Amino acid sequence: MGVRIVGDVTRLNRALRKLAATRLDRAAASVGEALVSSTIQRFNEQKGPDGRPWEPLAAATVAPRKKDFKKSGGLRKQAMERMEKRKILIQSGRLRNSISARRDGSKVAVGTNLVYAAIHQFGGLAGRGRGVRIPARPYLGISKADEAEIERILKEALGG
Fold it and tell me: Which Pfam family, giving just one, matches this sequence (predicted)?
C-alpha cells in the first residue's frame, strides 16, 4: 500500500528537496574529506590509486652531487642508502600538503592548485629544452577502497 496526498503539496515538496540537498551537501563534504585523506595516504605508501607502486627516483635525482658517483659511474654505498630512504614526491611536502577538496553543493572535487602537479600526475618532459623525462606517478584518483567508502557515505546520507 502506498501513500496518497491530496491537496497543495508545494511546500512539502520544497521541504523534502531542501532536506535531500542538505544531506547530499553533507555527504559531498564527507566524500571530499575521505578522498583527501586517502590521497595523502598514497604519498605515504608511495603508490597510485590502482595500488601499483610509483616508479623509483632516478639515481641522478637522489645523488646529484658528483662525489656520490664512483669513477665507474655507479653510485657509492652512502648515496644508495640515501636514495632508498628518500620518499618520492615528498622532497618538501608541498605537493602532498596542497591536496584539498572543494565542494559546490552536492559536488566535490579533490586536487591541487600547484602548477607542477600535473607533470607528476601524468608524466612528461620537463626542464630546459624539455630534456628530462618525468614518469607518471598518479596520486589523484579513486581506488577500490575509495569507491567502497563513497558508497558507504552515500548510503548513510540517504538513510540506507
Answer: Phage_tail_S
Whether pLDDT at 16 is above 90 = no
Residues 6+ apart with CB under 8 A from 21: 105, 106
pLDDT tens digit string along 86-95? 889 998 999 9
Alpha carbons 108 and 39: distance in angstroms, whole number:
14
Q: Contact, 80 vs 70, CB < 8 A?
A: no
Closest CA to 140 of 121, 119, 114, 113: 121
In 3D space, the residue among 33, 61, 43, 16 whose CA is nearest the CA of residue 117 turns out to be: 43
